[in-house]
């Protein structure tokens, strides 16, 4: 009897112990699970807050700092990521871009970024970044070696064949693309160009290439050598783009007689009335000068000024030049009609901020 009782008690004790252990384990597991969940939630919240703060800081830095082409792209990407693209509203004026020397139509860090930026700022706009040649490499090479008059007629063909441009377009040229698009305006009135925006274009040419953009410094050394050996010889004129807007103020007559491109569009040889008429059809001709430009000599050329003839020290403004006073190109008439716009950006060649672009250029793209 006693043995049976003891056995029963022991069994009961064992059962109670096991139950208690199980209950304790369940409680511990639950506590651990809840803790892990709470920690996970807190971590996620902290990560979200950190990312938001980083995005805000980067945006502020980009807005406040000087924006060359690369940060522009960053800003666009950020904008895209945060707000997405808004499409639909139309009634926009198409925009044609012509890149500068050493660049190409579609470089994601330059023209590609500008195209994207404009597309974000003006939803629905059609932006055509000109490619001179069949590939990006050919496009870049042609910026150095293809006869400029041939490039201009190629572009005129492209524009005339593009159905999206037939109602007219705005044009924005970067560096040498600025004077090339002016030639398009003067030679090819159809489709009509509305606003011509020259970003650092050299409308009176250059007499010096002190610096080269990007990676092309060895090409620049070679170009300088060619220009010094005889910029106005037939061979160099025909095959070197920069020779075609080389303007030697010590040899104005040589320049006038032999410059294949610039002397022609600047009416130095004969007076082509259609150039004058076509240029005056513009709504506005905007010229941007970079106040600390280290690639263009003289910088005045970006506002259509140049060295006074016969020396290479003193400069004259467009308004002081014979071209303006005799109004050979219609620039005086444009000026009097308030259609010549002189803008400046306080930076090196092609450097401007996003805020500067919004305030100064964007109004001409509508
Ligand atoms: C907006 O209109 C222009 C000209 O009519 C056209 O080329 C362009 O494709 C249109 N864009 C959109 C997004 O519909
Ligand atoms: C004037 O320019 C137009 C357009 O490029 C050209 O067709 C014409 O032959 C030029 N006239 C003269 C006199 O050079
Ligand atoms: C420029 O052309 C004019 C007329 O054809 C000629 O009389 C003059 O000698 C030329 N000058 C130079 C430096 O080539």
Automatic annotation (TrEMBL):
Residue spans crossing the bilayer: 7-32, 38-63
Organism, as annotated: Acipenser oxyrinchus oxyrinchus
Compartments in which it is found: Endoplasmic reticulum; Golgi apparatus; Lysosome; Secreted
Pfam families: Palm_thioest
Family to which this protein belongs: Belongs to the palmitoyl-protein thioesterase family.
Reactions the enzyme catalyzes: hexadecanoyl-CoA + H2O = hexadecanoate + CoA + H(+); S-hexadecanoyl-L-cysteinyl-[protein] + H2O = L-cysteinyl-[protein] + hexadecanoate + H(+); S-hexadecanoyl-N-acetylcysteine methyl ester + H2O = N-acetylcysteine methyl ester + hexadecanoate + H(+); S-hexadecanoyl-N-acetylcysteamine + H2O = N-acetylcysteamine + hexadecanoate + H(+)
Lineage: superkingdom: Eukaryota
EC number: 3.1.2.2, 3.1.2.22
UniProt key word Hydrolase: yes
Molecular function terms, GO-annotated: palmitoyl-(protein) hydrolase activity
InterPro entries per UniProt: AB_hydrolase_fold (IPR029058), Palm_thioest (IPR002472)
One biological process term in Gene Ontology: receptor-mediated endocytosis
Top EC class of this enzyme: hydrolase
One cellular component (GO) term of this entry: Golgi apparatus
Name of the molecule in the record: Palmitoyl-protein thioesterase 1
Alphabetized UniProt keyword annotations: Disulfide bond, Endoplasmic reticulum, Glycoprotein, Golgi apparatus, Hydrolase, Lysosome, Membrane, Secreted, Signal, Transmembrane, Transmembrane helix
